[in-house]
Specification:
The complex is a heterodimer of chains A (395) and B (524). Chain A is an alpha+beta fold and 395 residues long. Helix content of chain A is 20%, strand content 33%. In chain A, strand 12 and strand 13 form a beta hairpin. Chain A starts with a strand and ends in a 12-residue tail after the last strand. Chain B starts with a strand and ends with a helix. In chain B, strand 12 and strand 13 form a beta hairpin. The chains are: A alpha+beta (395), B alpha/beta (524).
């Protein structure tokens, strides 16, 4: 049976569309209204409230907690201070991505790791000989994302606390109408925003308090369809969509290294050891075979394909997550894995895997477009990610 | 002495800014001279009451050309267009007609009034979509003159001829009807419901001193359906921050390309020597010279005020005299303590995030026009209402609201002329009309701003306060806008160009005249 998140009573009452999606064995709303359009715009123009409780969450505690995490992930955990949050991928011994998530340092000896997939066994297997306890807290921590330009004023109004000092990728403990919360300045939208970590028993009270405080500022509950548009604009990869986790790949060709996912910045080769380090150190010596980049479909050429059959161009307002071939000089040079029409940027954007030099910004490629059942190609340009990067995200 | 500037743009309305941005993008040295302290002309957001931001004049976006958004990368300069989702028409009998963006919901609502209309609606939508596509090439084209034998005109005509031939007979005939009929007659061919026809016909009278039964109003309806958002025609949106943010984004793009935008710089005169424009003089006396002068002002202001008749051929001046402005629209902007509570659909709901149209029937609109014919404003006017703070909460303090009310008819040529008392009487008529449907509005008003056509003329400088810089009627459109033989942005004065809504393809926050004028200059 599918499970309900702690926010489900509120979510279900609001979900007019009856459009639900599965996420890690839970049901979550795809959109609340009949179209996700307004929920998307709330993320970018006001604020959105998104139930992200299905994330896997682990509490890693003990004298060697940081040593364990430093063994597993590619970024450096040991130097973090309580209150820091890190985004990091982690790999298998071949240096291929298993998962990605965030690590929040709650105190000297305690961390919370979020993950898209179950990771308890992987963590335990790597903890051999270390003094550390790993607890799966996925069900005992509820999570809400509060994202958008008005997220700060809403959260400040709801908890009557000044959050101006809470910087990007930092975390703090606050109380919201009596409920203790951990608030991290993180999210999956590439915008100003927070993620709230709380007791499931407080979930409804926190939801209600946020809606009450946030409605005058345009706070809107948003589902996964809206989030998907925002995360593509933010250039953030999604497991099982933009990459296949190495432990589920059936052939080596399906796996990706951090370098091939544009995550070189998150690989700290100067750490003495972590899983996959040797393979990654070797890979770092040469340019990556594949690169993960943004592409922008060239509108005039896209429009011409439709005009040729007497149609106005049709843009994907719901993000697609299929593999779409990319060509250059008559041959296939890559494939796009997620794409969407950005309602804000007024551009058709996609995330793509491209071979070698075709992954550099400015490279001209072609993308397959199906127009009236015919496969055509429209021009596209490789651009730097993120597509949308407002100053307020870090300000 | 070499000129510091390649081009001067007189007036920082959205079209002037678009023209400046395109010229600067092509490497030209451009300066925009705006009389007011902020750019935008009639596309401005102002805090007319502390904490409340009003789109003082124009208030929605749809017509803004997608190629301009793309070429100038306006989203990077702050443009964010939010969707307007629905239209609610409250009815005098306490019922309502709603048009929703969800197909099933919309069909069910229409069927409540007429099963036939519910079915006809989709076909109507398809026809208007096809018409939008049919008109689209015209919006990106310098209009060729069918009376001319110049190769460029002939080539342009041939291209358009091929385009219109390719539409096929059904579409071509529909287009012909839209170009010539009245909005009411055209809608009668489709629908039977009075509220639906009234609300659709309202698009045909906007900005024009015509009633819905006046021939030619079907074109104005089409003009409002040509807008394109994300490839969807007739989609209407609201710019976050109000329409001023459209202008600010264009100004930001122009500056990023290297243009200089000067505010508080009122142009007094276009300097003409030997039949050539050589620059401008500011009211401060400062002289600025350039190779080319573009005027974003309307044709009357450009030629009769800034250039002067003595520099112009007599027949040109005469033709200008026939160009009709006749502003017919007013704006009422309200700061509200609470949301309006519509008796037909009480409480807060999605209907408050769309347009609310006081247009219960074609007769209602025609009666409103009857009064305007004889120089009175309508006692029960057509109102097109949006509540920007419901779409963008930053427009008002938390929990408070702004309401934007487009009002018609409020003729520029009011019998006895516009006075402060008449302006407030118009404001009262608008509030009275609205209060018939949402009685709480009266006590919710914290501040009221009434903008008559005379105010538009005084504040923004548009002749007779016509929101389109001249009526959008067939005799002054395309190759006839503003004056026959002078529709290609050029003027009888060498080096002087027009780039405002008084040129093809006309008004609305479209930007096409500015873009086409700039491209025409860059062809030189």
């Amino acid at each position: 049976m599918l499970r309900f998140t702690p926010f489900h009573p509120r979510v279900a009452a609001l979900c007019q569309s009856h459009a639900w999606r599965r996420w890690a064995g839970y049901v979550v709303a795809s959109s609340y209204e009949l179209s996700h359009e307004r929920e998307y715009h709330a993320i970018r123009a006001a604020a959105a409230l998104i139930d992200v409780s299905p994330l896997y969450k682990y509490r890693v505690h003990g004298r060697d907690a940081d040593r364990l995490l430093d063994r597993v992930v590619t970024r450096e955990v040991r130097r973090s201070a309580p209150g820091d949050v890190l985004y990091t991928p982690w790999c298998d011994a071949a240096g291929k991505l298993l998962d990605d998530g965030t690590i929040a340092r709650l105190d000297e000896r305690t961390f919370r790791l979020t993950a898209a997939e179950p990771n308890l066994r992987w963590l335990q297997d790597n903890a051999l000989g270390l003094e550390v306890a790993i607890e799966d807290v996925s069900d005992s921590v509820a999570a809400l994302a509060l994202q958008g330009p008005n997220a700060r004023v809403i959260l400040e109004a709801a908890c009557e606390t000044d959050l101006g000092g809470l910087r990007y990728f930092k975390q703090a403990a606050v109380r919201l109408r009596g409920s203790p919360l951990l608030v991290s300045r993180t999210g999956y939208t590439g915008d100003l925003g927070y993620e709230l970590w709380l007791e499931p028993g407080d979930a409804l009270a926190v939801w209600d308090a946020l809606i009450e405080a946030g409605t005058p500022f345009g706070l809107t509950p948003a589902g996964m369809l809206a989030l998907d548009v925002a995360r593509i604009e933010a250039g953030l990869p999604l497991i099982d969509v933009d990459y296949v986790p190495a432990n589920r790949a059936l052939i080596a060709g399906q796996t990706s290294s951090p370098y091939e996912l544009d995550l070189a910045w998150a690989v700290k080769l100067d750490k003495p050891f972590f899983v996959g380090r040797d393979a990654l150190a070797r890979e770092a010596q040469r340019p990556p075979e594949w690169r993960f980049a943004g592409i922008e479909v060239d509108w005039p050429s896209f429009e011409r394909l439709f005009a040729a059959v007497g149609l106005a161009p049709r843009v994907p307002s719901v993000a697609w997550r299929t593999s779409v071939p990319l060509y250059a000089e008559g041959a296939q040079v890559g494939y796009a894995t997620s794409g969407v029409w950005s309602p804000l940027l007024k551009r058709y954007i996609a995330l793509a895997h491209l071979r070698g030099r075709w992954g550099s910004p400015g490279a001209a490629v072609e993308i397959e477009v199906t127009v009236e059942h015919q496969r055509k190609r429209a021009g596209a340009t490789v651009v730097t990610k993120p597509f949308f990067d407002p100053a307020r995200k870090r300000a | 002495m070499a000129n510091r500037w390649d081009a001067i743009v007189v007036g920082g309305g959205h079209n002037g800014l678009v023209a400046a941005a395109y010229l600067a993008r092509a490497g030209k040295r451009v300066v925009v001279l705006e009389r007011r302290e902020r750019v935008g002309g009639a596309a401005v957001s102002e805090e007319a009451f502390p904490g409340f931001r009003f789109s003082v004049f124009s208030y929605v976006v749809s017509l803004l050309r997608p190629e301009i958004i793309r070429d100038l990368d306006l989203p990077r300069h702050g443009l964010h267009i939010l969707p307007l989702e629905s239209t609610l028409t409250p009815l005098p009998n306490g019922d309502y007609l709603a048009q929703w963006n969800d197909h099933d919901r919309n069909r069910r609502e229409l069927a409540r009034h007429s099963l036939r209309d519910a079915e006809a609606y989709d076909e109507f939508g398809r026809t208007l979509h096809q018409m939008g596509r049919a008109m689209k090439p015209l919006l990106g084209l310098v209009p060729p003159d069918p009376a001319s034998w110049r190769p460029r005109d002939l080539a342009g005509l041939a291209r358009l001829g091929r385009h219109f031939r390719a539409l096929g007979p059904a579409q071509f005939h529909a287009l012909h009807k839209l170009a010539t009929m009245s909005a009411a007659d055209y809608l009668d061919e489709w629908f039977e419901g009075e509220a639906l026809k009234g609300t659709k016909a309202a698009s045909g009278i906007i900005g024009t001193l015509h009633g819905p039964r006046s021939p030619g109003t079907a074109y104005v309806l089409l003009h409002h359906y040509m807008g394109e958002l994300d490839g969807v025609f007739r989609a209407w949106g609201f710019a976050k921050g109000g329409n001023g943010s459209v202008s600010e984004a264009i100004a930001g793009a122009a500056r990023a390309f290297g243009a200089e935008v000067r505010t508080g710089a009122a142009v007094a005169q276009v300097l003409v020597a030997n039949g050539r424009a050589t620059g401008v003089t500011l009211e401060s006396g400062e002289e600025i010279r350039a190779e080319v002068v573009l005027s974003n002002a309307d044709p009357r202001r450009t030629f009769l005020d800034l250039v002067g008749e003595r520099h112009l051929p007599a027949e040109f001046v005469e033709a200008l005299g026939r160009f009709r402005f006749r502003g017919a629209s007013a704006k009422v902007n309200l700061a509200l303590d609470e949301l309006p509570n519509f008796a037909c659909m009480p409480g807060r709901g999605p209907h408050l995030r769309g347009a609310i149209s006081i247009s219960p029937s074609v007769d209602y609109l025609e009666r409103a026009f009857d009064e305007a014919k004889y120089g009175e404003f309508s006692r029960r006017p057509y109102l097109d209402i949006v509540i920007p703070s419901m779409i963008d909460p930053d427009m008002a303090p938390p929990g408070k609201h702004v309401m934007s009310i487009f009002v018609q008819y409020a003729p520029y040529h009011l019998a006895g002329g516009w006075t402060d008392a008449r302006r407030e009487a118009l404001g009262d008529a608008v509030v009275d009309t609205l209060a018939e449907y949402a009685p709480n509005v009266r006590r919710a008003i914290l501040h009221r701003q009434v903008v008559t056509p005379a105010d538009i003329e005084r504040l923004v400088g548009i002749s007779e306060g016509n929101i389109f810089h001249g009526e959008l009627t067939l005799q002054q459109l395309f190759f006839l806008r503003p004056v026959p033989a002078w529709a290609r942005y050029r003027t009888p004065i060498e080096g002087l160009y027009q780039c405002g809504s008084g040129t093809h393809p006309g008004g609305g926050v479209m930007g096409a005249p500015g873009r086409l004028a700039a491209l025409e200059i860059l062809r030189r």
